[in-house]
Amino acid sequence: MRHLHFILFQLLFVSAFAQELPEEGQPVEIDSLAPVADPKYREDQFYATISYNLMQGKPGGYSQNSFSTGLSFGFLRDMPVNEKRTYAIAAGLGYSYNNIKHNLKVTQGGGDTFYEIVPEGDFDKNKLVLHYLELPIEFRWRNSNAISHKFARIYTGFKVSYLFADKAQFYSGDGDIKIKGNDDLNKFIYGAYISVGWNTWNFYAYYSLNPIFSADAKFADGEKVNLNSLKLGLAFYIL
Whole-prediction pTM value? Predict the structure, then answer.
């Protein structure tokens, strides 16, 4: 019975396939509908990045551990400035998530905030989580056209990031410490970035021009915490 079902299935398949083939001598029909070029097309209006946060301007003894994640996504209004639409300016709004894993311990007491470099092995986990709203503006070059979405691009820009939430967490055998709403963090971060690539894969780099911590953030010996963010990773774009 199973063999009979298999034979019947094969016969039905061959019959259906044969119906799709033109008879000998008949012309083969070709779909005459071709893609229509949109003279006012726009490119890459949604973006997402994944990157590694590599801290710069580090104080003495500072180190990172594990993977310090940087994620962002948002919308950019693409505004071409030439007839071929290969040059454009884009501005938009986005969100950035940063999880910096390091050995900088943050504590509070008596209305003050204290900073300490803790040796590796003296804690289980320690991280600083930062949430930003981003306002990017960029200049774009690409060799795209209205039909194909596979093209090379070089996008470079500047963004202002507003810190709206933060949390420092320190985990050890003595207990957990959580600090939220640290006033020593700069509310506004200014940075430059570049995205270079082809089609899906684009190299992404970003550098913050001012530090994450304000000048009020200091260690017991008076050294400033500072910390500028250098992000290296990949950018992805969607129409």
Answer: 0.82
